[in-house]
Specification:
By secondary structure, this protein is an alpha+beta fold. The chain has five helices and 15 strands.
């Protein structure tokens, strides 16, 4: 009896919700939060919950809809619900706590559903059939409990970063002497939790000259912090440099050490770095009475390269 009495009310609530459009924005959620707290199913789970309640999920909600924005905060996620044109706003911060795991995603989904219900109840309900005798509008989904197609629930923040990334680049080194070197390199990096990266690179550069040939080979481990993709991160490397120089008069082989630090930009397949470097030694070479090349101690490195994966 109770179930039979509750069924019409549930259907009426679902029909009312079907006339309310809801959009969900996830662009401000950091990838590091998704990986650390197990939030890869947060967007899909939220949409399934709202569709199951009878709401119409759209890309952009109009003046009569509800807009949900989810963004990362220093601790947890900042959940903002805003009604377009209705003037009602609900904002709050959800703390993940020390045990940031998949159960936090369930708490966020439940809170989003509660706030959407609260805001939707304040919106004016348009007439279901404004024209007498007109057929009922088709439902958003034949089965409210059925989740939307996978294409609708796949979001950019569900795409995990590639565990290993390989990149190749063109390199320009310029120092205060002034002298320059051109070349290229390759790097292999591992993606660690919380935006950290670690790996190593090999590099070969040369200074073109008529009477002097200079080659330098470097093998350097590095660490980087890339909070978001795409975005700008911080990069540091330290490694030995094998310095080779030859002319008609003699050949030189020296070992040096260099430290480089600066910003890096990762956007899709593009990886660019602008680094300030310092060397342990300054290696100068003369041809006749003139200095043909000098490595200097301080300089800049510009690298522009391509990554094999866009994640």
């Amino acid at each position: 009896m109770l179930l039979a009495a509750a069924a019409p009310a549930a259907r009426a609530q679902a029909q009312a919700h079907a006339q309310t459009s809801v959009s969900v924005d996830w662009k401000a959620v950091r990838d590091a939060d998704v990986e650390r707290c197990g939030l890869s199913r947060l967007r899909a789970g939220t949409i399934e919950r709202l569709v199951g309640a009878g709401y119409a999920i759209v890309e952009r909600a109009g003046d009569s809809g509800v807009r949900v924005s989810v963004a990362s905060a220093p601790a947890g996620l900042r959940l903002r619900l805003r009604v377009e044109g209705g003037g009602a706003v609900r904002e709050e911060t959800l703390e993940a706590g020390p045990q940031c795991d998949a159960t936090f995603a369930l708490d966020v989904i439940s809170r989003i559903a509660e706030r959407v219900d609260e805001i939707a109840s304040m919106l004016p309900t348009p007439p279901a059939n404004p024209v007498p005798g007109a057929p009922d509008a088709p439902a958003q989904s034949a089965d409210p409990a059925q989740p939307p197609p996978a294409a609708e629930v796949e979001g950019e923040h569900e795409r995990a970063r590639a565990a290993v990334q390989v990149a190749f680049d063109l390199t320009l080194r310029a120092n205060e002497s002034p002298s320059y070197q051109l070349g290229g390199g390759a790097s292999l990096r591992a993606r660690l939790p919380d935006g950290w990266e670690g790996g190593g690179r090999i590099e070969l550069t040369a200074h073109p000259g008529g009477d002097l040939t200079v080659l330098e080979a470097m093998l350097a481990p590095f660490v980087a912090f890339q909070a978001s993709l795409p975005g700008v991160g911080a990069y540091l490397e330290l490694g030995p440099i094998l310095h080779l120089a030859s002319s008609d008069a003699r050949s030189v082989r020296e070992l040096d050490l260099a430290l480089a630090v600066g910003p890096q930009l990762a956007a899709g397949h593009v990886l660019a770095q602008l680094l300030l470097y310092g060397r342990l030694r300054s290696l100068a070479h003369r041809v006749g009475d003139e200095i043909a090349f000098d490595t200097g101690r301080v300089g800049l490195i510009l690298r522009i390269g391509a990554q094999l994966s866009d994640r």
